[in-house]
Design a protein that fits this description.
Layout: E1 5-9, H1 14-26, E2 31-36, E3 56-60, H2 66-75, E4 80-83, H3 90-95, H4 97-122, E5 128-134, H5 159-178, E6 182-187, E7 189-191, H6 200-209, E8 214-217, E9 223-228, H7 229-242, E10 248-251, E11 256-258, H8 259-274, E12 285-288, H9 303-309, H10 317-330, H11 332-338, H12 342-350
Parallel strand pairs: 1-2, 1-4, 2-3, 4-5, 5-6, 6-10, 7-9, 8-12
Antiparallel strand pairs: 9-11
Bound molecules: nicotinamide-adenine-dinucleotide and thymidine-5'-diphospho-beta-D-xylose.
Length: 353
Amino acid sequence: MANRTIIITGGAGFIGSHVVRLFVNKYPDYRIINVDKLTYAGNLENLKDIENRPNYRFVKADICDFDAMLALIKDEKVDGIIHLAAESHVDRSIKDPFTFARTNVLGTLSLLQAARTCWEESGWEGKRFYHISTDEVYGALQFDGKLFREETKYDPHSPYSASKASSDHFVRAFHDTYGMPTIVTNCSNNYGPYQFPEKLIPLFINNIRYRKPLPVYGKGENVRDWLYVEDHARAIDLIFHKGKIAETYNIGGFNEWKNIDLIKVLIKTVDKVLGRPEGADDDLITFVQDRAGHDLRYAIDSSKLKSELGWEPSLQFEEGIEKTVRWYLDNQEWLDNVTSGDYQNYYKSMYKL
Ligand code: NAD
Ligand code: TDX
């Protein structure tokens, strides 16, 4: 469908910036409106390469601001919303759950209600509200080979995953109650360029570079399922255009790693790229107090997405990790810019520096 006008919320964040870039480049006939509050995690630097494109507009706004969302959807005749804006870091949710309930739950509700108000008036035809969620809503798996499927019962444990679970339920409720054309996807851990360096992979790449301790929670036994961020963005594009209304799709790379094994790969790769001898930085591994309520294992079964829409991850993990390591090592200025100010203070208090 040509000439669509799409809001992408959270477009200045990690995954959102990849989705905005993909849509702006691939769909010159669409109008892409990036709605972002620019919290500590949102950086317009992530989108420097496309900021002057004629099919792109940035709007600094809070999704909790119902009147602003309503006016934007109405004035711009928006027909699609891809909703990524959220508070996304589990450790922060443990310290400050209210902010997560506000943005993730009330913000999503405000956006849904604004879209409903406009779209009920103009008709549901051709409209789409696509909500981006996480595998963490399914809870924790044991080491038994089982995977999260679309039918897996929700069992969130952290304030972050509880807030995402709640927002997922609101999205489905808007379909079931009002007939809003919605889609929800639940994705595994993403990695790649432009991820805020509080998350495991970018934080540890930077620490290895400067030979700072690597704070491994617990024994490093927890397992996560990792997907390269551009593969997630491709899945979002496909599902936005071809996914079935009211469906849920799991997105993941069938790529499980125990944290400690992943950290060893990171050390090896950074040392290789920097020309340091193998094993030079192994002693940076520092076991620290475990995260409260730390989910043992996440693993996504994305076979529905493959069989119904033909999506598969394009990148092998070793290749993706090396690409990611090189990007962070080459983009020190980006790292310095996004970690100045507020984040520095938070990081210092978190690790008692
Ligand atoms: P991020 O923290 O990097 O970016 C979030 C963006 O949302 C930022 O640009 C921020 O400024 C913006 N934002 C926050 N509160 C806002 C508000 N009230 N109004 C408007 N904008 C606001 O997050 P991310 O890692 O890119 O995650 C994006 C989405 O994908 C989230 O919904 C997250 O739950 C989901 N997700 C993330 C992962 C992952 O591994 N990172 C995996 C699965 C799902
Ligand atoms: O310093 C650390 N030490 C450590 O051992 C950090 C930051 C993390 N960890 C562990 C905790 C997790 O088991 O590494 C694993 C990955 O941690 P994060 O990068 O914080 O990601 P996670 O908690 O798994 O959540 C991520 O994936 C799902 C994203 O932050 C979420 O937004 C997404 O929904």
